[in-house]
From TrEMBL:
<dbReference type="InterPro" id="IPR013563">
    <property type="entry name" value="Oligopep_ABC_C"/>
</dbReference>
<dbReference type="Pfam" id="PF08352">
    <property type="entry name" value="oligo_HPY"/>
</dbReference>
<dbReference type="GO" id="GO:0016887">
    <property type="term" value="F:ATP hydrolysis activity"/>
</dbReference>
<protein>
    <submittedName>
        <fullName>ATP-binding cassette domain-containing protein</fullName>
    </submittedName>
</protein>
<keyword id="KW-0813">Transport</keyword>
<dbReference type="InterPro" id="IPR003593">
    <property type="entry name" value="AAA+_ATPase"/>
</dbReference>
<keyword id="KW-0472">Membrane</keyword>
<dbReference type="InterPro" id="IPR027417">
    <property type="entry name" value="P-loop_NTPase"/>
</dbReference>
<dbReference type="GO" id="GO:0005524">
    <property type="term" value="F:ATP binding"/>
</dbReference>
<dbReference type="InterPro" id="IPR003439">
    <property type="entry name" value="ABC_transporter-like_ATP-bd"/>
</dbReference>
<dbReference type="GO" id="GO:0055085">
    <property type="term" value="P:transmembrane transport"/>
</dbReference>
<dbReference type="InterPro" id="IPR050319">
    <property type="entry name" value="ABC_transp_ATP-bind"/>
</dbReference>
<dbReference type="GO" id="GO:0015833">
    <property type="term" value="P:peptide transport"/>
</dbReference>
<keyword id="KW-0547">Nucleotide-binding</keyword>
<dbReference type="Pfam" id="PF00005">
    <property type="entry name" value="ABC_tran"/>
</dbReference>
<keyword id="KW-1003">Cell membrane</keyword>
<keyword id="KW-0067">ATP-binding</keyword>
C-alpha cells in the first residue's frame, strides 16, 4: 500500500517504484504503471502545471520529479531526453498543436525517425499502422490538418503521441473541445489503446464526469493544492472533501447520493492570492473558524484515500 499522503509519488515504474512527482504545492502523486489517474479542478487550480511538470515541459517550481529513483535534475542529458520522450502530452486544441503546413505523414512520422524509433525507410508503413490504430484511414496520410474534422484531428494528435512509444500520456482537456458524441468515441479510443500499448494516463480535466468515465483514481485539486485523492468509485459514492462533494452536485446526471450535496457557491478566488487557511473556506458550507486560520493537511483516511479537510479531525479516520 502506498501512503498517498506521503511526500512523494511513484510514477509509472516497471516495478511500481519508479518515478516521483512533487511538482505543485501539496501534490503528492502516486501513479502506478497501467493506471489512469484523473486530475480534476477548475481552471487555474494548477492541474495543467502539474501535467507540464511531469512531461518535463515546465520546470517544477517546488518539489521535484524523479523517475526510476533518479531526480530529473540529476539525470544526464540523454537520460533526461529519454524520460521526456516517454511522457507525451495531448492537448485540448489539436489544431493549435498540429503544424498546418505539414502532411499527416510527417506530423506523425517525423519525430520517431529523428529519435531513431523507426528507420526513415519504414516511416510510411509505421504511420499507416498508427493511423489504423487510432481509427484513421492511412490513405489520408498525404492530407493536411485542416482537411480533417475536430475528432479526426484529435486522433492525429493521439497517433503522433503514440509514435514515440510513450509509457505515460498526459491528456490535458483532450476531449473538451469536441462534441459530446465524439468525446465518448475518443475516450473509448484512449481506453482501447491503454490495453494495446500498456499505457499509463494522466487525464486532466475540469469535468469530473469525463474523468470519472476513464479513471481508476481521481486527484481533486483546488487552487494549486490536492484536496482529495481517491479511487474513482469512492469519489463518486463516498467523497470526503466538501469541494469534491460540490463538484459532484454540479454533475448533470444527479443520482440520489449526489443530491445530498450542495453545489459550489461564489467565484473562484485568484490563485495568485489564495484565501488563508483552507483556501476553500469562503465557498465551503461547512467552514469553521479554524478553517480560515489553518491549512488542513492531506490526511490518509483509508488505503488509497486521502483528503485535506479539518472536518476529519472531528471524527476518527475510517480504518483501512
Ligand atoms: Fe470546508 Fe474547513 Fe474542510 Fe476547508 S477545512 S473544506 S473550509 S470544512
Ligand atoms: Mg488548464
Amino acid at each position: 500500500p502506498v501512503d498517498v499522503a506521503g511526500r512523494i509519488a511513484n510514477l509509472l515504474g516497471a516495478n511500481n517504484r519508479a518515478a516521483v512527482v512533487h511538482a505543485v504545492a501539496g501534490v503528492d502523486l502516486d501513479v502506478r504503471a497501467g493506471e489512469v489517474i484523473g486530475v480534476v479542478g477548475e481552471s487555474g487550480c494548477g492541474k495543467s502545471t502539474l501535467g507540464r511538470v511531469i512531461a518535463d515541459i515546465s520546470p517544477a517550481t517546488e518539489g521535484e520529479v524523479s523517475y526510476q529513483g533518479k531526480r530529473l535534475q540529476d539525470m544526464t542529458a540523454p537520460e533526461r531526453r529519454a524520460y521526456a520522450l516517454g511522457v507525451q502530452m495531448i492537448f485540448q486544441n489539436p489544431m493549435a498543436s498540429l503544424n498546418p503546413r505539414m502532411r499527416v505523414l510527417d506530423i506523425i512520422g517525423e519525430a520517431p525517425v529523428v529519435h531513431g524509433i523507426v528507420p526513415a525507410a519504414k516511416k510510411t508503413e509505421y504511420v499507416a499502422g498508427l493511423m489504423r490504430q487510432v481509427g484513421l484511414d492511412p490513405e489520408y496520410a498525404q492530407r493536411y490538418p485542416h482537411q480533417f474534422s475536430g475528432g479526426q484531428r484529435q486522433r492525429i494528435g493521439i497517433a503522433r503521441a503514440l509514435a514515440l512509444k510513450p509509457r505515460l500520456i498526459v491528456c490535458d482537456e483532450a476531449v473538451a473541445a469536441l462534441d459530446v458524441s465524439i468525446q465518448a468515441q475518443v475516450l473509448n479510443l484512449f481506453l482501447e489503446l491503454r490495453r494495446e500499448f500498456d499505457l499509463t494516463y494522466l487525464f486532466i480535466s475540469h469535468n469530473l464526469g469525463v474523468v470519472g468515465h476513464v479513471s481508476d483514481r481521481v486527484v481533486i485539486m483546488y487552487l494549486g493544492r490536492v484536496v482529495e485523492v481517491a479511487p474513482t468509485d469512492v469519489v463518486f459514492n463516498r467523497p470526503n472533501h466538501p469541494y469534491t462533494q460540490a463538484l459532484l452536485a454540479e454533475l448533470p446526471t444527479l443520482e440520489t447520493t449526489r443530491r445530498a450535496y450542495q453545489p459550489i457557491k461564489g467565484e473562484l478566488p485568484s490563485p495568485l492570492r489564495p484565501p488563508t487557511g483552507c483556501s476553500f473556506h469562503p465557498r465551503c458550507p461547512h467552514a469553521m473558524p479554524r478553517c480560515a486560520a489553518e491549512l488542513p493537511a492531506l490526511r490518509t483516511l483509508a488505503d488509497g484515500h486521502a483528503s485535506a479537510c479539518h472536518l476529519n479531525d472531528l471524527q476518527p479516520a475510517t480504518p483501512a
